[in-house]
Hints:
Blueprint: H1 13-16, H2 22-26, E1 29-32, E2 40-46, H3 51-65, E3 69-74, E4 87-93, H4 104-111, E5 124-131, H5 141-152, E6 156-157, E7 162-165, H6 170-178, H7 181-188, H8 217-222, E8 225-234, E9 248-254, E10 266-270, H9 275-285, E11 292-293, E12 311-312, H10 313-319, H11 329-337, H12 342-352, H13 362-367, H14 373-379, H15 387-393, E13 400-403, E14 414-420, E15 423-425, E16 432-434, H16 436-443, E17 449-455, E18 471-476, H17 481-495, E19 503-509, H18 519-527, E20 532-537, H19 548-554, H20 556-564, E21 568-574, H21 579-594, H22 598-610, E22 614-619, H23 621-626
Parallel strand pairs: 2-3, 2-4, 4-5, 5-6, 5-7, 18-19, 18-21, 19-20, 21-22
Antiparallel strand pairs: 1-3, 8-9, 8-17, 9-14, 10-13, 10-17, 11-12, 15-16
Amino acid sequence: xxxxxxxxxxxxxxxxxxxxxxxxxxxxxxxxxxxxxxxxxxxxxxxxxxxxxxxxxxxxxxxxxxxxxxxxxxxxxxxxxxxxxxxxxxxxxxxxxxxxxxxxxxxxxxxxxxxxxxxxxxxxxxxxxxxxxxxxxxxxxxxxxxxxxxxxxxxxxxxxxxxxxxxxxxxxxxxxxxxxxxxxxxxxxxxxxxxxxxxxxxxxxxxxxxxxxxxxxxxxxxxxxxxxxxxxxxxxxxxxxxxxxxxxxxxxxxxxxxxxxxxxxxxxxxxxxxxxxxxxxxxxxxxxxxxxxxxxxxxxxxxxxxxxxxxxxxxxxxxxxxxxxxxxxxxxxxxxxxxxxxxxxxxxxxxxxxxxxxxxxxxxxxxxxxxxxxxxxxxxxxxxxxxxxxxxxxxxxxxxxxxxxxxxxxxxxxxxxxxxxxxxxxxxxxxxxxxxxxxxxxxxxxxxxxxxxxxxxxxxxxxxxxxxxxxxxxxxxxxxxxxxxxxxxxxxxxxxxxxxxxxxxxxxxxxxxxxxxxxxxxxxxxxxxxxxxxxxxxxxxxxxxxxxxxxxxxxxxxxxxxxxxxxxxxxxxxxxxxxxxxxxxxxxxxxxxxxxxxxxxxxxxxxxxxxxxxxxxxxxxxxxxxx
Length: 627
């Protein structure tokens, strides 16, 4: 008989359940129902493809439920060693008339002329064979052999031999044989009738789930906690006249119990590295995704890596280290020391030098193209840097901070983020660059878990404690995030009957057809008198580019009126491309309405900052690249 299930054919999964793990199969497992009769039951299998082993595993569980003291294992483990009491269930296949690999020794023992005729006296048994009538000449050859030889060696057949035919209805064959099995064993072993019935159904497994990331030293150092993503939806709309569609996500996160926040706070998110990037690292070093490693910090030196216990390779590369940080000169010098090829070594040494000689310098070849250590290792194949050296060079994965875009008054337990997904051609011109955390959040659907913590801004970037104080808010793109929460705060107060000060929002974006984020919400707040929104699209066909600083100038009368009334000015956006221009715009408003000099305007702005009436929540280009 050919392989018991034939080429391309599998037995139904119902009777087979799941095959036991290889280690369990090799080392016999024993189980006993605590309140059972304790009669020994051997459940033995001969299996190459797993079907017979899976059936045997299920029968062993059923036997334990019925009070037997069960031993499960391959037939070869019991060659020359069958007991003279109790019962045995044998489940086996045959392959072209030959026994499975783990039953060959057992069959040889049964066939041996030297095996005494009373070798199995006192043992009761039954056999179920897995076969396929497409190999008719050897169909059930080994199950029939074992059945006959056990009887010849003095064992007593307690139940008929069963045959499962993979060429027909294997499941039906098994069900027909299984139906009378336990009643036959109970009767043949003089057990009470209720011994044929299983014990009251209960759980076979008790599972305790744990998130290993919670033990990550990086997670512990920030006291981050697991939180549930409840909503993750796209804010960018299809269409419009702008450039190819980008991605901006509105993400709502249920904060851990006992974690609160104030409107204007930041949420720190501990990301996971991109699986594609992790695959690059593993491929370069010849590592396998299933590997675990034990990290030993030599000399007891502190480390941000999980040391002293087996840690999954994937987990360490995903959660503990920065894989995309720009390689340092020291990294490159270390690469050179691990490079035997003279030409590549000289090139690396030139990159690591402090001088600046154009394209071969560190700045031109590494810093500006934002090339990481793995980028360079792939570019210099002669470098044989060991994996432990590479891992030790990587800095700890650090959190990314996002302005919370919800109101703590209206949503105290679930906060929202407004996340621009950073993705585009890599500066190195080699593939795509994806922001570590924005890409991670983009990949996290609803019901997934992220590790987060709340951080207070270093400045009072929050709605004024006095709700009568006017607010002037200036934000571009995702810079509108905190102001969504500010305005919702004021709206809730207004709805509660509290008089609120006037609010003015300058909101800059590219195209009203694609990235006017939260347009419906803002229109509602405007209609209810909570805020006046000055929408500033910068890329409208047929119109000159306009930015928020330009509209501050055209709205100078209202701006100055609110400033004179004690307004607090809030600015959120890019530190290099937006914030300086907005400062100049407010200085121009001051000069227009006072007739004073630029020096006076600068001093006025400095005074507003000191009074916490001009507040900036801004980020620079280097931060943006890592988002």
